[in-house]
Structure formats: C-alpha cells, structure tokens
Amino acid sequence: MIEADPAQIQELVDVVAARTGAPTTLEDRELHLVASSGHEEILDEVRRISILRRRSSPDVQRLFASFGIAAAEEPLRIPGNAQPGLYARWCVPVRWRGVAYGYLWLLDPGEAVPPTAIRALADVVDQLAVAMARRSRTSDRTSWAVAELLSADAGARARAAEEIQRDGLIPAGREIVLVGLARHDGGPVGPVNTWLLPRGVLSAPIGQRGALVLPASTHDATDVAARAARSLLAEHTAGVAAGVSAPVQAPDGYAAWRQVDAALRVALSADPGTATVRTWADLGVLRLLSFAEPDTLTRTLADARAQRLLDGDPDLLRTAGTYLDLAGNAQRTAAALSIHRQTLYHRLRRITALTGYDLDDGGDRLTLHLVLRLAEYRS
C-alpha cells in the first residue's frame, strides 16, 4: 500500500504560499488541518484556532459550508465580512476525479491575490489532489482492517492482522495496544485527526466510538490517548474519555477491545467537560467490567449485609473502604483517616457487628471489597 507522504504534501502547500505570497493551509474534507505554510505574520482568529486545535471550529465549518464549498468545483472567494474577525480568503477545492478530498485556504485580506494567480496553481492542486486521494483510500482501507481486527470473529481478526502486517502498518510479530475514544454525551466521536498523532497510529470509527491501534513499545499509548482526547474535546465540550488496553498480539484484538471498553466505562464516570484517560493496567477489580455490565455485576454481587453498610454511617463506610484498599494495614488506615488506632479498631468492630463480615477472613474481605468498589464506581 502506497501512503500519502506528509513531507510531499507540506512541500506543495509551501509552494502555493511562495507563488501567491498568501498564508496557506490545507484541510481535509472533514476540515482537519493537514498542513500549513510558515506565513504567520497574517493571522486571523479562524486560522489561529485551526492551527491550535488542528481543526476549524463547528461554527466556522457551518459558515464555510454555507458558501457551498462541498459542491464547488472552482475556487471561491470568502468575503472578510462573513464573520467578525474573519479575513477574506480563497477556498480552492482539492478534487480528484470529481471527488473533493480537501480544501486549500489562502488568506487574502487585501484581496491582492488575483483569480489568475489562483488558476495558475492548477498543477500544484492536481498533485495535492492525488496525494489526498491516496491518503483517503489508505484511511478507508485501514478503517476496514481495524474494524475487522476488533471483531468477535477469530477468522476475520486473523485475516485483518495478516493484511495489516503485510502492508507494513504494524510490524509482524509486534504486540499492539488499543485506544478507545468516547464522548460523555454518548454521541459519535467522529473522525480522529491522525495527523496530530505519531506516524504509524491507525484509526477507525467503531460504532459511536473511535479506535486507535499502535505498535506496543513504539509509542507511549497513554500519551497518544491523551493527545487524541484533548484534540476531540475542542469539538465535544461535554467531555471525552479514552481507554487504553494492555499489549496483545494482533489476532487478540477483540480481547483488548473488551479491556478498552472497561477502561472507557471508568473514564466516563469522571467529571464532564474533561479529557480523561484510564488504562486497563490501573483498573484493579474494575477489570470485571470487561466481562459484564455494571447492573449485572451489581446483581451478581448483591449482598444484604454489605447493603447495610452502604446505607448506614458514612464514617463506617469510608473506614471499611480505606481499610480494605490498604490491605487491612491498621497503622496506614488510621493515618489515612486521621484517627487514633483505637478509634479505628472500634469502627471495625461496629462494621463486623453491622454486616456480619469477618474482616480477618480473606473471603469475606474480598467479597466486601468488590461490592464497595463497584458501588463507588456506580456512584
């Protein structure tokens, strides 16, 4: 598979800027920033946000769409008075065989770039169109392969892993890590701008979520997840969650996607309006979420004895949770709760009397700990 060369695309954008003297950006058809020239002395708010967030804001996308850029086959001049703080600019559709794969934007506040200069860019635009079409085809094929890699069908996973490795997208024999992305409000994540991420990260939509696949040990998966979540937060202000799997062999993608699902569930319980990352490695007993829904787990672990503690004195509940989290270490528990050790012992006796659990028994402690941790997550 021949991929689009980012260096070639950047070079062509720089050629456009050099020929016209206008600051130039290239965006894909989702208005993700792909490349920009170095002319920063002329900068309006729209261009600044596009470069900062690597994507035009939803308001700007709607504004540009109202000028008919999606259907345009010829360059369009966007007037500077279309929105406060917006400079006049040229929009040059980047089309290959009738399909728009992106847009060139040339800032032209003084309307110094004539139509003849824009028409003279035809050769460069054609080269960009080929590169962007190749990029799009690569992305579509990769999306299919990633979706198959995460499916429950073992045969489909094996075929997808073989194809991805044959095309050099993932080194043969190398473990992979999966990253899942989800919105707090439950809507579709939409396309992830992979130009923001390290080279070699694969991306695909999986239902309402986004999925990233990266070679283990090549990139810091938690950092990649955080970068992707932050980039989406500008568009999905209700909040974005990211879940990271453990390293697995490529044909085990389905198991890793279940791990991602559990991590996402925990990440989505964080405060809204944030970009939150949770990893499988840090979930502890909440890894059980990869096997069952929270309601199912709650019913399975339902225990009237534990419920008396959950419904009772908050100090006793906090004491039990802290004591179990600290593996029954009385000294550390008393210090964490800022109470005297005798006070701790008194509370532990009350917990035993209330629930009937023997906190010196490993089985009782494990059962109670699971119930409390699940209840804490659900709250």
Can you lay out the helices and strands and say which pair or pack?
Layout (H helix, E strand, L loop, with lengths): L5 H15 L3 E5 L4 E4 L8 H9 L4 H9 L9 E3 L10 E8 L2 E9 L7 H5 L2 H28 L4 H13 L9 E8 L18 E5 L2 E7 L5 H13 L6 E5 L8 H15 L7 E5 L14 H8 L2 H7 L3 H12 L4 H8 L3 H15 L6 H17 L1
Parallel strand pairs: 9-10
Antiparallel strand pairs: 1-2, 1-5, 3-4, 4-5, 6-8, 6-9, 7-8
Helix pairs in contact: 1-5, 5-6, 9-14, 11-13, 11-14, 12-13
Please state the structural category.
alpha+beta
Q: Shape from CA axes?
A: elongated
String of helices and strands:
HEEHHEEEHHHEEEHEHEHHHHHH
- How much helical structure, as a percent, in the residues? 40-55%
Contiguous low-pLDDT stretches (5 residues minimum) are none
The number of helical runs is: 14
- The CATH C-level name of the largest domain is Alpha Beta
Question: What would the CATH topology of the largest domain be?
Answer: Alpha-Beta Plaits
Query: Average pLDDT value?
Result: 86
Write out the strand line-up for the largest beta sheet, numbering strands in chain order.
2-1-5-4-3
Strand content: 15-25%
Largest sheet descriptor:
5 strands, antiparallel
CATH architecture call of the largest domain: 2-Layer Sandwich
Give the termini separation: 48 Å
